[in-house]
Amino acid sequence: MALFALIHKELLVLRKDWHGLLVLFVMPSIFILIMSLAMRDTFSERHQVSIDLLIFDADQSAMSEELAEQLAQLDGFVLHRVEDLTTMERRLARDEARFGLVVQPGFARGLLASAPEQAQLSLLLSPSAGAQLQSLLQLALGDILRAMRLELRLEALSWQYDDLPTAAELRAIGSIEQRYVYQGDTPEAMPTSVQQSVPAWLVFAMFFVVIPLSTAFIIERQQGSLLRLRVMNISSTALIGGKILPYYLINQVQMVLMVLVGIHLVPLFGGDSLQLGGSLWGLFLISSATSLAAIAWALLITTVARTHVQATTLGGVSNIIFAALGGVMVPKFVMPPFMRELANVSPMSWGLEGFLDIFLRQGSALSVLPKVAALLGFALLCLILASWLFSRND
Amino acid sequence: MERSLALFDIRGLDHRYPGQPRSALHGVELAIPQGSVFGLLGPNGAGKTTLLSILLGLIAPSEGQVNYRGEALASHLAAVRAEIGFVPQELAFYPMLTVQENLAFYVRCLKVAKPWREARIEQAVVATRLGDYLNRPASQLSGGLKRRLNLAIGLLNNPKVLFLDEPTVGIDPQSRNFILETIARLNRERGMSVVYTSHYMEEVEQLCDHIAIIDNGRILVQGELAGLLAAHPGEGSACSRLESLYLAHTDSALRE
Ligand SMILES: Nc1ncnc2c1ncn2[C@@H]1O[C@H](COP(=O)(O)OP(=O)(O)OP(=O)(O)O)[C@@H](O)[C@H]1O
Ligand SMILES: [Mg+2]
Questions:
Q1: Regarding beta strands A99-103 and A51-57, do their DSSP bridges make them parallel or antiparallel, or are they unpaired?
Q2: Has residue B249 got a pLDDT over 80?
Q3: DSSP A86-122
């Protein structure tokens, strides 16, 4: 059958096009590795976030010492003492640390005063101190100061009453229990950076079939192979099918390979290992739908572009825009709400959400169906447009 | 010649590409006889490729009628194409693949039954003498060998009619001679009809028995070569007479 001949030819051509394969397989592996390692701390429980906090103690009192000790116990912050204000300012300006706390002279006295008149503490910020961390630190500092003042007052009362709580008792609020919530059953996997990067860069790489597909197709068109095939009575259905099936295969190989990279390669470099928790049927469905959307998009680009340089540019740029919008380059959870809304226009976002259903939210085959439907609808639309343009131009 | 006996009988053919100001073909009336080597001679942009594309059903003409063996082309296009071997003006194969891989791919596309595929390839390889280059990537062939591969693929369906669109562009005299001889042999030994476009006078002179001169989409002269030359007395060899015939009909101004 001609279709098999076309598929076989396409795979032969691809096998010899190692540039194309590099883009399809090596690029996403490298991205997954880098992003899993780089974003590890943003996600992980085990590897704590560590924000540098400088402290310059100009008060040199027992109270300021107590404050430093309390700060040292704060989760997520690493305390460094500096000897003078200039050093602190220099290091902050160079972004070597994000926060600097100056304990002003008279800090201890201020704690005892009923209403402190002047600032007891100054918080200095480096250019990259984020707004969220700032408010977190403010809250923590306020908390420590209130506890210290309360402690001092209680101490003053303790000669009158003997059943007052001690400072330690006051501070012990009991730890707050914490757990992640998923759609499906109770999960084994924790959301680590690798759980996010594998699907993100896999979807990105799948859409990059546009480069080899359009290049090959346009060269066939320019060099007359396409005419020759039409004179040999090959239908355009067979021609288009002869493109879809090989690239579908390639996309599935990409999927398996990127999952393997997540499971085996990332841990070799010290990252977490990918956990496959959700439904395998769901994985197959979302992977197939993403692949068809990517291929149909590539076919549409191929029919719109006149030269293969046009196609690679158009395909590459559109992919990068889809990726930037769709939460591949910047995870959606760090986006502000309106950007999250905007992300929904990108088909990469539908694919990515589907994969995240499986990898992150332990979803079932049912949970990915809305995304699968959206992707298939998109694929169908692109295919209809592409075949219309194809029959009109060629 | 009796027109109904013609292989191709073309009447009132007009074609304008969408969005183009000028027609690529104007009122073309042409008969291509069975069993002949038919030369379609014309300068760049004359409309040769457009005419071939219409005969192959690749383009639907804006107006006019094309009959193949007395029947409307459109009514049995698939069957007509099955009888035609097509050698496009471009090198229509896959440069990344070897000669063998290219031939194997195209022979499968022709739906040749498996037991016959090897024989078909062998036949085409022998005719074009590509035997020593089967495992070479097509991209590494010389210009002459690429043209021979282009021809070999056109022979894979064992055609009754061979369409060649400028098959000798950009190659040395030896390779050109070889290709011309191959075409002549196929016509002589297998009775293959040949439709051949070119703008090289001496090729047409050497190869063709019937010609048509086309310029700006119009057929200027057509008929048996010998008769046309006899009717156009001039000094010198046949070739220079063909050239003066050609120049007399096409205006000798420089082309686009
Ligand atoms: N696909 C197309 N779209 C628009 N115009 C075209 C197209 N193909 C050819 N033409 C125009 O039609 C005219 C005839 O072109 P055609 O390719 O048939 O000439 P040709 O005789 O084969 O020339 P050459 O010797 O250069 O191959 C030219 O003016 C050309 O610019
Ligand atoms: Mg041409």
A1: parallel
A2: no
A3: HHHHHHHHTTS-SEEEEE-TTHHHHHHSSS--S-SEE
pLDDT at B177: 92
Q: Does A11 touch chain B (CB under 8 A)?
A: no
* Tally: H helices and E strands in chain B: 9, 10
All residues of chain B having their beta carbon less than 8 Å from the beta carbon of residue A229 are 109
Cβ–Cβ gap B86/A228 under 8 Å = yes
The predicted-structure confidence for B58-104, as pLDDT tens digits, reads as follows 999 999 999 999 999 999 999 999 999 999 999 999 999 999 999 99
Ligand 1 atom nearest the C-alpha of B47 is: 18
Q: How many percent of chain A have pLDDT more than 70?
A: 90
Its CATH class, for the domain covering A49-172, is alpha beta
- The complex's ipTM works out to 0.90
Neighbours of A111 (CB within 10 A): 21
Q: Are B130 and B74 in contact (CB under 8 A)?
A: no
pLDDT digits (tens, 9 = 90+) for A24-57: 899 999 999 998 888 776 665 444 567 889 999 9
Q: What is the pTM for the complete model shown?
A: 0.79
User: Residue B73 in 3-state DSSP?
Assistant: helix
The domain locations on chain A are 2-42+193-393, 49-172
Q: Which residues contact A276 (CB under 8 A, 6 or more apart)?
A: A259, A263, A283, A358, A359
**Residue A69: is it exposed, middle or buried by C-beta count within 10 angstroms (0-12/13-18/19+)?**
exposed
Q: How many CB pairs under 8 A join A and B?
A: 67
List of chain A residues whose C-beta atoms are within 8 Å of the C-beta of residue B108 = 2, 4-5, 8
Q: What are phi and psi of B25, to 5 degrees?
A: -135, 140
